């Protein structure tokens, strides 16, 4: 017998356990495309374990914001994780918020990370924080429009309900507006997870880094929490993409076998997403910061087209 | 009970006004009397407005002439605004006890106390007048008194300029209000608001459209909608900090009150394009307001621009409400109106808090420029926490108050999918995208303000010696900070009452309303299975924070302090910090077509152009509307004036002949008109 509370616990464990794995897998796939051997897919776990054992070096300029930010960001992302369907569509805490709340929880995490970046008084931090918020400002309208495109299709922003409806409709839910909204969301996902062509997670070159510049002053345990938070966000963004657009296989009622199958399907889905992301990342170069508005307007236009085509197809 | 309370409020403010003038020899006494009576009046105002919301409406008649009936009428809508004003006045008055100390011995405190009390009184009378003439008198009183408050520090030239622009724009607005009232009075045969509501909706459509446009322009000027906003970024920063909090927090909302009164009450909702126009103005105001706020380094001007943005967000909700109302959907109209009202309430709280925070910063650092601040989180620990709460609320981050009202506005816009009109179904989601951009830029703007103002190292002497201000100031801000948190976490205790107020003009019954309130403080739209529970979100975040903190503190850890990484160079000084201008530079480049920045570069060379002696870089961003809309208008007016000057010969004979000519024309007009 699985209780509601167990679902919550399982969900937290799944998120915490799978997010480093996903990072490891993406790195491995990228290495494959670059004809390298690459680190083990378990490397992110080793890195986190190492960081957690280490002491921190903290700038003497910082205030409590610097110490609180990793924890608040981490908590905000994990809270969003509890209202995103991972392996079950009817989450116990699904009533706490909808897709819009998820977006704003991510914004809360980002806000504190960016705030912490300014705390040490380093120019790198300021640069990173400024760029991060800049990219976020460009992402937000496209994101909201694609959320509306998805929500209009179902008539709700409730994630569990969207997942169920699309899942029950089967392949008939795949339509032009569905796919247009997916591509729009995919571009947004690149931005949200800080990947090429928007941000390069592997760089420490001051002219190009965004996320890395923000967390440059962190070390030790705090860095571990920051890194884990970023990995979790990546997993959750993929989970959103996978379960909003291709929710088939997700458990709709609480049953052990259903959840087990759903978990396996979920892992397969995020590995596929990760592969696509790795291919995109290997085949493009990082864009200049001020070319990014172009990319995100493409996303905005696609979600607008999705919206319009929905209205045309479903009758005005 | 009512019959004593309402005159009691007026009486308290008058006492405050008169006695602070009488005791103006003694700064302390004058200040305390004026603020004490204002606080008592605001407590009475809170009790009064709550008893109207839960009970019956209140009316008070002063004179009984049939043509000109002066009096007051307070229904739930008015009561809601009296409540907002009273709450703001209470917190601001407590804050002012400390803040005004700054002016002791320098300024006439009795005079300030007089203006302060009369200003608040006029705002309360504006939202409770029930007659057009009465309304115009108190409206004018509010404008003139706030003008005197704006130019309180009149020894500064920029303050006088701000006052001039304010009084000019405000009178243009009043002119349009007067015209719209005259049209309605002509149609209804009386100046009482009662007859406006009775006959306003029976006017021919053409007159209704004209009245709508005039009202929108007239009250829009006061509310600060783009492009009539130009006075706001000058006037709000020029006023003393406590008055700015009231002007931005509540005064501009009185215009929203009258818009609702006229659009729904007098004109009966109107046609769908009204809604689209209000929505469009809302979107434009929100976007341009926040765009100018992002690049602003003067903390009070930034807050003033952000007020334009928030008025825009309120108008987006109001526009959606009008659209749904005109297309015959009172339930959704009520939802959108509730979103607008809740944002209005939240904005008055967090903007009041932020303006008081800015006032505290100026009080202890004597600078408004955030480029000169920095490191205040260590110097002013309490103010920084309170300011951060305001920042999180205005940036619409969960679980603070701004988030709830933005979420409601987005849901109201999303509900457009139920509309049968394709245009509505496309325009409303696009407005939602614009609202999302606004929200993201607001987060950018306030992150910059907090990050540059409070974090890292002090950038100047001013910030170096800052310290937390006195207790009353902290208390005043604390009240608003607490309200911001409560309004974010427990909206379900407030929204039903706002729903009651909204249904008085949208006419939505309980059954019509598409939403309800469930357990755990959940806001629900049952038909669409949309839920939001900020208490639960808050609890989860809090539990996770506590667990993580526990694990973090419980583990073996050692923090070594070291200087900030500067590529191995000893550069950890305030001069090497990132600046506010640099922080907002990406946005400035992104929207360069709107900002049209002017860059000037001056370099002085010594021997060769390679060795620069001095280097000066200037970046100026002018207000696009001032340059391209208002300057040509001013030029035109001046040109016409020069033409008119031709007939002003200065000769008495010429003037006598003008008078004679006018008389002849008037007589002919009467004779011909009579026959």
For this entry, give a set of tags:
A: 316 residues, mainly alpha, B: 675 residues, two-stranded antiparallel sheet, 69% helix
Q: What does this entry look like structurally?
A:
- The complex is a heterodimer of chains A (about 325) and B (about 675).
- Chain A is built from eleven helices and one strand, in the order H-H-E-H-H-H-H-H-H-H-H-H.
- Chain A is mainly α and about 325 residues long.
- Chain A is about 70% helix and about 0% strand.
- In chain A, helix 2 (about 45-55) packs antiparallel against helix 9 (about 220-245).
- Chain A has one domain.
- The mean pLDDT of chain A is about 90.
- Chain A has helices at about 5-35, 45-55, 65-80, 100-120, 125-155, 160-170, 175-190, 210-215, 220-245, 255-285, 290-315, and one strand at about 55-60.
- Chain B is mainly alpha-helical and about 675 residues long.
- A three-stranded antiparallel sheet of chain B has the order 3-4-5. A two-stranded antiparallel sheet of chain B has the order 1-2. A two-stranded antiparallel sheet of chain B has the order 7-8.
- In chain B, about 70% of the residues lie in helices and about 5% in strands.
- The model of chain B has no long low-confidence stretch (mean pLDDT about 90).
- The longest helix of chain B is centred in the middle third of the chain and has 36 residues, at about 330-365.
- In chain B, a hairpin with a 4-residue loop joins strand 4 and strand 5.
- Among the domains of chain B are: about 270-490; about 625-675.
- Chain B has helices at about 1-20, 25-55, 75-100, 110-125, 130-150, 155-190, 195-200, 205-225, 230-240, 240-265, 270-295, 300-325, 330-365, 375-380, 380-395, 400-415, 420-455, 460-465, 470-490, 495-505, 535-555, 580-590, 590-595, 625-645, 650-675; strands at about 60, 70-75, 515-520, 520-525, 530-535, 560, 600-605, 610-620.
- The chains are: A mainly alpha (about 325), B mainly alpha (about 675).
- Chains A and B meet through strand 1, helix 3, helix 4, helix 5 and helix 9 of A and helix 16, helix 17, strand 5, helix 21 and strand 6 of B.
- Strand 1 of chain A pairs parallel with strand 6 (about 560) of chain B.
């Amino acid at each position: 017998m699985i209780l509601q509370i167990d679902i919550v616990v399982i969900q937290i464990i799944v998120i915490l356990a799978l997010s480093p794995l996903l990072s490891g897998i993406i790195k491995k796939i990228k290495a494959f495309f670059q004809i390298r051997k690459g680190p083990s897919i378990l490397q992110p776990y080793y890195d986190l374990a190492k960081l957690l054992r280490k002491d921190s070096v903290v700038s003497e300029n910082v205030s409590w914001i610097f110490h609180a930010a990793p924890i608040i960001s981490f908590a905000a992302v994990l809270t969003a994780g509890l209202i995103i369907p991972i392996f079950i569509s009817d989450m116990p805490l699904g009533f706490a918020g909808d897709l819009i709340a998820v977006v704003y929880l991510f914004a809360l995490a980002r806000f504190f990370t960016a705030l912490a970046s300014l705390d040490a008084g380093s120019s790198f931090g300021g640069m990173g924080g400024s760029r991060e918020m800049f990219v976020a400002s460009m992402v937000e309208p496209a994101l909201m429009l694609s959320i509306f495109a998805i929500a209009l299709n179902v008539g709700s922003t409730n994630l569990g309900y969207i997942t169920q409806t699309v899942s029950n409709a089967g392949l008939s839910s795949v339509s032009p507006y569905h796919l247009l909204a997916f591509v729009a969301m995919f571009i947004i996902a690149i931005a949200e997870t800080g990947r090429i062509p928007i941000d390069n997670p592997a760089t420490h070159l001051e002219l190009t880094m965004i996320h890395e510049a923000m967390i440059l002053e962190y070390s030790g345990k705090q860095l571990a929490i920051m890194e884990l938070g970023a990995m979790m966000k990546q997993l959750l963004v993929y989970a959103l993409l996978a379960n909003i657009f291709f929710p088939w296989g997700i458990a709709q009622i609480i049953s052990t076998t259903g959840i087990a199958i759903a978990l396996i399907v979920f892992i397969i889905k995020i590995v596929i997403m990760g592969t696509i992301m790795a291919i995109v990342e290997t085949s493009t170069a990082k864009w200049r910061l001020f070319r990014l508005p172009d990319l995100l307007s493409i996303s905005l236009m696609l979600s607008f087209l999705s919206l319009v085509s929905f209205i045309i197809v479903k009758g005005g | 009970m009512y019959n004593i309370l309402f005159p009691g409020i007026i009486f308290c403010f008058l006492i405050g006004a008169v006695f602070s003038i009488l005791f103006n020899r003694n700064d302390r006494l004058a200040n305390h009397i004026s603020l004490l009576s204002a606080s008592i009046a605001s407590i009475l105002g809170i009790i009064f407005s709550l008893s109207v919301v839960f009970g019956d409406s209140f009316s008070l008649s002063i004179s009984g002439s049939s043509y000109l009936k002066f009096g007051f009428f307070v229904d739930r809508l008015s009561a809601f605004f009296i409540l907002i004003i009273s709450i703001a006045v209470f917190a601001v008055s407590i804050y002012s006890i400390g803040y005004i100390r700054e002016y002791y011995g320098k300024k006439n405190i009795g005079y300030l106390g007089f203006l302060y009390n009369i200003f608040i009184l006029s705002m309360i009378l504006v939202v409770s007048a029930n007659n057009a003439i009465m309304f115009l008198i108190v409206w004018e009183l509010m404008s003139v008194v706030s003008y005197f408050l704006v130019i309180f520090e009149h020894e500064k030239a920029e303050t006088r300029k701000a006052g001039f622009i304010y009084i000019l724009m405000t009178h243009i607005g009043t002119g349009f209000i007067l015209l719209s009232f005259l049209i309605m009075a002509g149609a209804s045969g009386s100046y009482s608001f009662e007859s406006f509501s009775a006959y306003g909706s029976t006017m021919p459509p053409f007159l209704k459209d004209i009245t709508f446009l005039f009202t929108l322009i007239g009250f829009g000027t006061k509310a600060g909608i783009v492009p009539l906003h130009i006075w706001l970024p000058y006037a709000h920063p020029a006023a003393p900090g406590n008055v700015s909090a009231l002007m931005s927090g509540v005064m501009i909302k009185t215009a929203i009150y009258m818009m609702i009164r006229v659009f729904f009450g007098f004109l009966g909702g109107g046609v769908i394009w009204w809604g689209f126009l209000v929505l469009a103005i809302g979107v434009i105001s929100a976007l341009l307001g926040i765009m100018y706020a992002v690049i602003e380094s003067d903390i009070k001007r930034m807050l003033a621009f952000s007020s334009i943005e928030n008025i825009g967000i309120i108008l987006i909700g109001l526009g959606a409400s009008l659209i749904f109302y005109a297309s015959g959907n009172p339930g959704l109209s009520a939802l959108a109106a509730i979103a607008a009202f809740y944002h209005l309430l939240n904005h008055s709280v967090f903007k009041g808090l932020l303006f008081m925070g800015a006032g505290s910063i100026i009080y202890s650092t004597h600078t408004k420029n955030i480029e000169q601040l920095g490191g205040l989180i260590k110097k002013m620990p309490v103010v920084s926490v309170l300011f951060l709460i305001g920042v999180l609320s205005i940036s619409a981050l969960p679980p603070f108050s701004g988030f709830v009202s933005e979420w409601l506005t987005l849901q109201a816009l999303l509900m457009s999918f139920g509309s049968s009109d394709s245009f509505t179904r496309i325009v409303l989601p696009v407005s939602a995208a614009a609202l999302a951009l606004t929200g993201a830029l607001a987060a950018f703007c306030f992150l910059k303000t907090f990050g540059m103002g409070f974090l890292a190292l002090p950038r100047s002497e001013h910030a170096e010696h800052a310290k937390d201000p006195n207790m009353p100031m902290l208390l005043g801000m604390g009240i608003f900070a607490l309200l911001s948190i409560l309004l974010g976490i427990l909206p379900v205790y407030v929204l039903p009452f706002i729903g009651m107020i909204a249904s008085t003009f949208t006419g939505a019954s309980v059954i019509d309303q598409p939403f309800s309130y469930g357990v755990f403080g959940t806001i629900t739209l049952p038909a669409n299975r949309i839920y939001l529970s900020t208490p639960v979100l808050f609890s989860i975040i809090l539990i996770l924070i506590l667990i993580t903190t526990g694990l973090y503190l419980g583990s073996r850890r050692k923090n070594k302090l070291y200087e900030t990484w500067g590529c191995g160079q000893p550069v950890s000084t305030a001069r090497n910090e990132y600046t506010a201008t640099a922080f907002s530079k990406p946005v400035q480049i992104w929207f360069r077509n709107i900002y049209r920045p002017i860059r000037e570069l001056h370099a002085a060379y010594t021997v060769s152009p390679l060795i620069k002696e001095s280097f000066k870089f200037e970046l100026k961003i002018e207000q696009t509307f001032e340059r391209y809309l208002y300057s040509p208008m001013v030029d035109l007016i001046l040109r016409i004036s020069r033409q008119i000057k031709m007939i002003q010969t200065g000769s008495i004979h010429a003037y006598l002949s003008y008078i004679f000519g006018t008389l002849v024309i008037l007589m002919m007009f009467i004779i011909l008109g009579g026959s």
